[in-house]
Write a structure and sequence with these properties.
By secondary structure, this protein is α+β, with helices and mostly antiparallel strands. 30% of the residues lie in helices and 34% in strands. The radius of gyration is 22 Å and the shape is globular. Residues 1-21 form the signal peptide.
Length: 181
């Protein structure tokens, strides 16, 4: 008769082995990479929302300002406030100094039925000025305070939940098969 009491506890501990220490063990690695790249962007006077959440790693030459950001895969999302579709290549590169990103490669925006490469970004007070060759467009920096999530990408928490629900299903199926024997 002790089996009905022990079985739910056993299932609980199998399903949630990390619940007391860290409910999302992979988030620390991902968050440290993301926050480091986004913090670096902030140090140069730019809002964190210029980079999506899926930053894998980045490098920057502190002397020359040349940088490279690895996203792991291409990324697309809608930019505020005019709902332009933006695509980020798996690798973004350029040269950054305080308040200005130049020689930017890897970011394109769809506007007026055409794709345009953003070649530079300037921080000008409360605004960001996006450069497309010699043409510029100014937008409020406050529209870029939140980091965008790539369309079609799930959050780390979503993967964690999916993983645990899959484990729950496997355990329930196993228990059901044992009870039928």
């Amino acid at each position: 008769m002790a089996t009905p009491t022990i079985l739910p506890l056993l299932i609980f501990f199998i399903l949630f082995p990390h619940s007391s220490s860290d409910p999302n063990p992979t988030s620390k690695t991902l968050d440290s990479n993301i926050s480091a790249a986004h913090s670096e962007l902030s140090n140069y006077g730019f809002p964190v929302g210029l980079l999506p959440t899926n930053v894998v790693d980045y490098s920057i030459n502190q002397t020359s300002g040349e940088f490279s950001v690895n996203l792991g895969s291409s990324c697309k999302f809608t930019l505020p406030p005019d709902n332009y579709l933006a695509t980020y290549s798996p690798k973004i590169s350029g040269k950054i100094v305080h308040g200005h990103i130049a020689s930017l490669a890897g970011i394109r925006v769809r506007a007026v039925f055409q794709w345009w490469s953003i070649t530079g970004i300037r921080s000008s007070g409360d605004n960001l000025v996006f450069e497309v060759g010699v043409v510029t467009a100014k937008y409020p920096a406050k529209n870029f305070h939140e980091t965008p999530v790539c369309e079609g990408h799930r959050s780390v928490m979503g993967f964690w939940l999916l993983f645990h629900w899959t484990r729950l299903y496997a355990v329930r199926k196993s228990i059901g098969n044992q009870m039928l024997r």
